[in-house]
Amino acid sequence: MNFVTDLLFPNRCLNCNHIIYNQDIICEQCYDQINFTHWEALKQNPLKLKLNTLFPVRETYALMHFEKQGLCRKIIHHLKYKHRENIGRQLAKWTVKKIKLHIKPDLLINIPLHPRKMKKRGYNQLHLYTETLSHAWGIPFDHHYLKRITHHKPQAGKNRLSRQHNTEIFTVPLARCNTHFLLIDDICTTGNTMAGCAWKILEASNNSISILVMAID
Known about the structure:
- This protein is of the alpha/beta class and 217 residues long.
- The chain has two domains: 1-33, no CATH class; 35-216, 3-Layer(aba) Sandwich (Rossmann fold), CATH 3.40.50.
- The chain is built from nine helices and six strands, in the order αααβααβααβαββαβ.
- The strands form two sheets. The chain has a four-stranded parallel sheet with strand order 1-6-5-2. Strands 3-4 form a two-stranded antiparallel sheet.
- Strand 5, helix 9 (192-201) and strand 6 (208-216) form a beta-alpha-beta unit.
- Helix 5 (87-98) packs parallel to helix 7.
- The termini are far apart.
- The relative contact order is 0.17.
């Protein structure tokens, strides 16, 4: 049955539409077009410089640069809006290949969706990504550590003085102390969403946060 399905509906590169292996999402030629970050030699990468103005952060990692007309945008768009949850697994494999953790965190957590959005989409685009990283790195994950309690996004342009508003968007049902979290998101633009999560996590004693995003805008 799988052979017939593959024959009639072969897996195709989401960029150029060439036929590719079942587990892939793009072909080798299109893979070479992705603008990966390559921050290994940088002491202060652009993501850390951005987020340090919003909340205290230990380490920051980004897989790709997000470009409005680039392939990264198309990949993440398909992941979030085209029911291609499997893309998260492939992005995690690229992450393991290209990013080396400077400090191993205690727990992987991700930005939660509001229940209404979760019901509409059917999945959180970060869950499979996080689970695949957890298996590869040997670090536990918790999809439910953070809960989103409002359906509104933080407004762009807010600084750290406005973090009280952002923390009202999230809650922590069962807080942990003395924990180094790796907080995972898809795209970092202003950093306000991550700041709202971070300050809520940091309310518990002796916690610290590192950040991983699929792409930085």
